[in-house]
Structures are given as C-alpha cells and as structure tokens.
Amino acid sequence: MDLVKRLIRDVPDFPKPGIVFKDITPVLREPAAFRQVIEALVDRYRSKGITQIVGIESRGFIFGAPLAYALGVGFVIIRKPGKLPADTYSVAYDLEYGQDTIEMHKDAVGPDDRVVLVDDLIATGGTARAAALLIEKAGAAVAEMAFVIELGTLKGRSKLDRWSVHALLTY
Fold first, then answer.
1. In the annotation, is 9 catalytic?
2. Residue 96: active-site member
C-alpha cells in the first residue's frame, strides 16, 4: 500500500476552508496502484461467502464494481434521491449542517445476501451508517464495510460499531 499512500494527495481547503481533502484520482490514474487496491480487497473477500458488493455514490462505484467483477458477484448501487428508476428504500441521515438521504432499489438485495459495502473513504461515518441501515432494511446482512481510506481523527468508526469495518489506509 506504500505506492497507494504516496499517490493520495492532500488538497487543502476543499470543498471548504479548513478541510483537507484526500484526493484518490492519482491512484486511479496509476494502473499499478489501482490494481493494488482492488487486489487487496479481492484477497480479503475471496473466500468469505459474499454475494453482493454495494457501492455508495459515487466513488464507491469506482472500487466496488471491479471488486464485484473480480469476485464474480453482483454489484448494487446506492444513490442520492431521484436517481434510481425503480421502487426504492430510502434512509435519511444527519450531516454536520442539515440532512441528506440515500436510496437503493428494493429488489437489489435480500435475505440470502451477504454484502460488502464499499466506499473510498470513511470520515464521520454518517453515510456508511445510513447505507448499512438501507441494506438491512432490504433484508440483507452487512458482512463488512470496506474503505480505501479512514480518517481516524474524525472517529467515524464509532458510528459503525454494529458492523465490521476494514480500511486499507488510515490517516
């Protein structure tokens, strides 16, 4: 993971002053680094009985889709409201200033599914928690949450104490 860690760049004051954004786009641009991330996740989940990978909009799609492909399982997307065409479940969650909502198709997962929830980064944990509740609302089990980056100082993992959490890198 040294190559991946070297390529992740800090962007100060984005998207607002005081935030240091962890930019993964250099990792995506470098084939060896991108492959290293996907292979690390494949190695972790290859023999865990996973039936679906669920990616959170939008960077969870980038890592979740190739992981699902490599594991030979389905890929499910969680999106912002109004982006999915069929019947959906939704979960609202609190942000630092306000609220947001995410949705998933009602038929995306079910009681026989063991799911890995994937996103690029865990910060405060609110979105990941809402996504896990959405998966459980549809009847599936969250086997684990997988992130490329964890911002440990923001203590997002504390909101996810009901679930197993795995991060490839922690800052």
1. no
2. yes
